[in-house]
Design goal:
It comes from Halorubrum glutamatedens. The strands form 2 sheets. Strands 3-7-8-6-5-4 form a 6-stranded mixed β-sheet, with no helix packed on it. A two-stranded antiparallel ribbon has the order 1-2. 4% of the residues lie in helices and 29% in strands. It contains 1 helix and 8 strands. By secondary structure, it is mainly β.
Length: 137
């Protein structure tokens, strides 16, 4: 299965019926740590849970203290990314897996660059430009 680079978050949930509608609750940590905003509209994909030999408890509620997923990048790692936006401080913003944000100074929107990750935090990473890449490469 191909996963879009635009993926903002990924979590497991249960479809519940409430007052004639069906609801999937978004865990609080996805809004607190991610890029989601309350009262905004997002596209949602629903995938089946792979079958297992053990019975699963569908009434179980997710643990709100559950540790967030680890960042999808590591310090020293190099990647080629596209700068999607410019932040309030003037730095470039790129996104990698699960919509994880990487801040890249001295870049312009739509620019393709090879970066090296210099610092990784729980919900954001920082990088420096190693090389500016042509779109034709």
């Amino acid at each position: 299965m191909e996963i879009s680079e635009e993926l903002q978050c990924l979590f497991s949930g249960t479809v519940e019926e409430r007052d004639g509608s069906y609801v999937v609750e978004v865990p609080e940590q996805e809004l607190r740590l991610g890029e989601l905003q309350a009262d905004e509209t997002y596209r949602v994909a629903v995938l089946p849970v792979p079958a297992t030999n053990e019975a699963t408890n569908t009434d179980a509620t997710p643990d709100p203290e559950q540790a967030p997923q680890t960042p999808p990048v590591e310090k020293g790692e190099q990647r080629t990314v596209e700068i999607e936006n410019i932040g309030d401080q003037g730095d470039g913003i790129a996104r990698v897996e699960r919509g994880f944000v990487v801040i890249v100074p001295d870049t312009k929107q739509t620019e393709r660059v090879t970066i090296e990750i210099t610092d990784v935090r729980e919900n954001v990473a920082f990088a420096e430009v190693v090389e500016r890449v042509s779109y034709y490469e």
